[in-house]
Specification:
The protein is mainly alpha-helical. It has 8 helices and no strands.
Length: about 200
């Protein structure tokens, strides 16, 4: 039963879904032009991000699986992760490039650029250890909103607490499934969090 719950948590908080969650959370704040953006525009943008950062990469992973370039969608070995990580980095950067001139979502664009870099960092670290990409992603999301809170001096503690709670649940899930060691999980979160926090504080 616990393994099924861990698999469910790993799925609904998959790294490819975090850009969609991040944009949705940003739209729930008062940063920049968010309060005056039409709801139709918000839904359209969330849908675009969901398709390009989740649906299309998943389709690419299924094609890799069909071509037997990966053995499973879980990509349990380090070698299997290389091409999928490059594909994800390409999609993330593509979304950033497409939206780069939209000042209404400048914070999200910074998040996307940082996410692209974190994917590439994951790719490098992958040659040394099977770092937890789930936790790098959740660390990045945590660092993003901590950075936003510090930069704009806004009280979004509830959002940050929820993000940290979800990160903790995801860490539990990855350890329960024996997908990673404690070092790979905790260091992944720390890398993602520190990198994104620095990005939002100093860019």
């Amino acid at each position: 039963m616990e393994n099924k719950i861990a698999k469910f948590i790993s799925l609904i908080f998959h790294p490819l879904l975090l850009p969609t969650y991040a944009l949705t959370l940003i739209f729930s704040t008062d940063y920049y032009f968010v309060p005056v953006l039409p709801d139709d525009y918000k839904f359209l943008l969330i849908g675009f991000v969901f398709i390009t950062s989740f649906i299309l990469p998943v389709i690419m992973m299924l094609l890799l699986l069909k071509a037997k370039m990966i053995n499973s969608l879980q990509m349990e070995t380090q070698n299997e992760r290389v091409l999928p990580l490059l594909i994800v980095a390409g999609f993330f950067f593509g979304i950033f490039y497409f939206l780069r001139e939209s000042p209404q979502i400048a914070n999200f664009n910074i998040f996307l650029l940082g996410s692209t870099v974190l994917v590439l960092i994951s790719l490098v670290l992958n040659y040394f250890t099977k770092i937890s990409i789930h936790m790098i992603a959740h660390g990045g999301l945590s660092g993003t909103f901590i950075g936003l809170a510090l930069t704009y001096n806004q009280d979004i503690r509830l959002i940050i607490y929820c993000i940290l709670l979800i990160a903790g649940l995801t860490a539990f899930a990855r350890l329960k499934l024996k997908a990673h060691s404690q070092f790979q999980v905790y260091s992944g979160f720390l890398i993602g969090c520190v990198f994104m926090l620095c990005l939002f504080l100093f860019v």
